[in-house]
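User:
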Amino acid sequence: MGAMRRFEGGNGRFWEIHLDGTTVRTRSGKLGTDGKALTPKRLPSVAKAEAELEKRIAEQLAKGFTEVAQASGPEPENPELARQIVEEPTDSGRYMVYADWLQTQGHPRGELGAIQSSRAARPGDAGLAKAEQKLLEQHSWLAPAQLMEAARKPRKAGKAGKADAPDDVTAVTWEHGFIVAARLARGDGRSSATVRQLVAELLAHPAARFLRELRIGALGQGEHDYAGVIEEIIRGCPSTLRVLSLVDLPPGSAELVFASLADVTPLLAATPLLEELRLAGNHVQLGALELPRLRRLAVATADPGVLLALSRASLPALEALQLSSGDAPLPAAPLGEVLGARWPVRRLAITRTANTDELVPWIVKAPLLVGLGSLDLSGGKLSDTGAGLLAMARPKLAHLESLDVSSNTLSPGGVAQLAGLCGSVRADDQRAAPAATISEDDLRRMAPDAGALAKARGIAKPKLWPTLGRDDTTYWGEHRGSEVYEVYVRVPGLENGCSCPSSKRPCKHAIALAILIAEGHAFEARPLPRGLTSRAGASRYYNTWE
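Assistant: Predicted structure:
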């Protein structure tokens, strides 16, 4: 059988052809897959078979396909040079030595490393950018195929459709011939590969052998279970990994996302050299935690069990700690346990909490406070009451370099109480104190009868609602029981709807969602799904009963 020739196009597809005597065989499909073999064509002579081969190749070239070279075998390795990079994965000089060695072996990754090193020094050099692109096109196997397709330029808004959301974007960062950072996410229509498949492909590829940073974003519409992704990270995680983010969020997003991370303890045991870690999910478990090099930690949770497990963690190098509950109440006593830990924290952030006033007494008496340089309480519900408590603790806070209480609910008088409290106080963008959204009387008025209200209380449990979101006036969610139903409630008018077939309206699902709103559970700030109100119908029926 003759040598196979491979061609790839900008549409994310490949085409292969080879000549076997007088038979021409072809295969095509999406990049990153095995594709599909087409019916072989047998010609009457070798000459005619060769002519058929050239004809078909010309057809593919006319369609914009480009011939690419194929890897001839496994990449050459130099264990000693690789060990030096693993010991210090941020040292550019060690990568450049490795690239030089690869060039002596005639391997194109060495040339790629040299080009990318030059680009780092001259980022505006168009010639180098073109040379890099050409090399990657000629030797596409130097990079994970599915990942590179998913990381193509994000879609912009326009007539063709809506733009990709920031949390849907996949991106990679190259240095000296290797992928050193990757953010993997799945947006509508961006890639046929799942995030789990992208993670598996990345971590098994030679290009990621020195990966330092891995961030996992959205899994796709309606997907919230990260267990498979975590399994792939554990299976293929390189020892050079220093930054891990689950779930990675764009700036300005809600701090708590509806994601099931399950028990992350085995994952953290497999990544002992982490220096930065982010965990954000409404379903997460945490056991023993020992990360001797961890310097930055962000945890978004309203689970007291997670906070108590965190309070027992061994984090001797921790410099920055961020806690958030995504506009839900943060359990105060478990927070006090966390703040009692003996870590060398210099920056503490407790943001987007629904009970900031309740947390202030625990903060001002925390042992951690003594060593802090900055304290961030932004984006919560700090009122004048909480400001007064901070003002009373002025001697304990005077050593702070900065205090951030922006985007809370302080009046001008409350802001004045904090003036001069420490080196720098930021108190801009205050908003009006919110009125109670839904009261117990509202729930009674919504419910058609006492039985409907009782049934609603039985399913008003966050674990039965894998998705909870909100925009300015509408709260919505997906209830998972025998089936999955879409539900919404608008405040303060209490217009509501549900996609369930119940003839009793409002149904128990709509009332349960209203109960979750009334109890202050976390709702992720995100746009209302398109068509939800049409699918769920609408109800304004309220009854009065005794």
